[in-house]
Amino acid sequence: MMETLEEAELCFPQINTSCKKHARPQSESMLMYIFMSFISLLTIVLNMLVIISISHFRQLHTPTNLLLLSLAVSDFLVGLTVMPFQIFLHEPCWFLGDLVCVLYYFLSFITVCASVVNMVLISVDRYVAICDPLHYSTSITQKRVRIYVLLCWIYSFYSFMFLSDNVKQPGRYNSCYGKCVSNIIGALDIVLGFINPVSTIVILYLRVFVVAVSQARAMRSHITAVKLQSSVTVTVKKSELKAARTLGVVVAVFLMCYCPYYCVSLSGSDIILGSSTNFIAFLVFFNSCLNPVIYGLFYPWFRKCVKLIVTLEILSHSSYEAHILQ
């Protein structure tokens, strides 16, 4: 009887080296699955709305929005391909095989890295717009931004460098049969995936913050650096400052979601990813759901686009010419 009970607690009762199941109440597990599934679905829907909005409406075809589009694509892929696997990873019983396990970690690193690099590009865009506005239109063009976005996604495949051992021998780091863990080179991941991009983001936004504060004070006191500056230029500056503040919120939320994972990573050079790091990993992925929520709170054009999409007005003739920014 005791042997039967022990076998029932195994993920694969017919295999002696099988992992054991969690003795977790079924109601707790069900609530966790429902919550994670809801977040995954919400991430997919919200980022799809961003993708449709920026892709469809011609007035939104700007270099800054092209970067937001690339970020939305990476966040959409997180919700579509990574979060569902994370639901399976919530339990120690992984029934999808070692190859799918490796694929999950590979997809997660690609999409997360793409999000990080997109954040760097967005910070550079805001830096040039605020700190060097006279050269913005010539420095940040649609063609150049497309090239930068392409390089961003190419760079994202650097995860091959520290997942190579897992690809050569899937399951080699599993402590028991039916587990899904992966070993990464912690130092390499921290430098390429966190320290370099985050330090760049922070430095650029500190510079943007200093310039934005000085410009805000100048506007309040009706003092301009160039007295011949037109009111139209001042309006553009105000819009740029507002965009910088909005994207500053995006970056701040990004740092709050990513820092816990990399703080844990600093504890050692090699990290075994698995069920023990589920919460901080899910926090990283949850950032992909928060980005479009921030757009909805701060961007009137996004709310207007959502209304046109939900009411199917987007299907009308010449809807791509709609004046979204009015």
From TrEMBL:
Localization annotation: Cell membrane
CDD domains attached to this UniProt entry: 7tmA_TAARs
Pfam families: 7tm_1
Chief location of this protein within or outside the cell: membrane
Keyword hit for Transferase: no
Database matches in SMART domains: 7TM_GPCR_Srsx
UniProt keyword Aminoacyl-tRNA synthetase, yes or no: no
UniProt topology in membrane: Multi-pass membrane protein
G-protein coupled receptors family 1 profile domain residues: 46-295
Recorded family membership: Belongs to the G-protein coupled receptor 1 family.
Name of this chain's protein: G-protein coupled receptors family 1 profile domain-containing protein
Organism this protein belongs to: Channa striata (Snakehead murrel)
Lineage: Eukaryota, Metazoa, Chordata, Craniata, Vertebrata
